[in-house]
Write a sequence for this structure.
């Protein structure tokens, strides 16, 4: 990947544009994640009083809202970034090879954007043991490039201060990016081969199996 560390949010934005695909956390390929590429000052840390700080985690919102990439659970069910340059190919390949949970998509399209628990309630998944089942559907829809993250919403305490890990504000690519970003001149298999060739060149130490796992 690269030898120099990432020190700021803008640097990470530029890297995403350079590499096209970047998992947020451990991808199974050494050195290929935002978590591993940032310097130590921007990694997760726990303080003596029990508090924590994680600058990388806080960068997600500005990166997504800046608009040059797409964020969601795209890599073997794990979160990461895809540049707009490569999004049409990923979308083209993934949508051709996965089923669609229509009720979730129709509900999200009707509302425009919702955090996960709002979407779950709107779809009627509010019974016992339904949360994990619904979250599984949403992850599959993200893997299929049907749902992406528009921004991150944080709860606030009585003083108006944000806290916690934040919730993904979910939407559809059509709503956030427009339908033109879904058009691709290649067949799904051609898109797969293009992405595979790109990542193989980017990650020469990765095995073919590891590369294919990221794409599929």
């Amino acid at each position: 990947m690269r030898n120099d560390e990432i020190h700021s949010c803008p640097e990470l934005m530029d890297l995403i544009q350079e590499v096209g695909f970047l998992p947020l956390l451990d991808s199974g390929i050494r050195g290929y994640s935002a978590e591993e590429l940032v310097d130590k000052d921007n990694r997760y840390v726990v303080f003596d009083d029990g508090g924590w700080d994680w600058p990388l985690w806080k960068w997600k919102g500005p990166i997504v809202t800046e608009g040059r990439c797409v964020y969601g659970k795209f890599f073997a069910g794990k979160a990461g970034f895809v540049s707009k340059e490569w999004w049409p190919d990923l979308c083209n390949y993934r949508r051709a090879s996965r089923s669609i949970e229509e009720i979730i998509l129709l509900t999200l399209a009707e509302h425009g954007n919702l955090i996960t628990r709002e979407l779950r309630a709107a779809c009627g998944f509010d019974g016992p043991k339904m949360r994990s089942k619904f979250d599984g559907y949403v992850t599959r829809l993200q893997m299929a490039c049907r749902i992406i993250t528009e921004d991150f919403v944080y709860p606030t305490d009585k003083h108006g201060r944000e806290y916690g890990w934040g919730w993904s504000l979910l939407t559809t690519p059509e709503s956030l990016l427009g339908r033109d970003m879904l058009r691709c001149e290649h067949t799904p298999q051609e898109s797969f081969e293009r992405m595979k060739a790109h990542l193989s060149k980017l990650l020469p130490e990765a095995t073919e199996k590891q590369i294919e796992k990221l794409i599929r």
Summary: The beta strands are 21-23, 45-46, 52-53, 69-75, 78-83, 114-115, 148-153, 167-171.
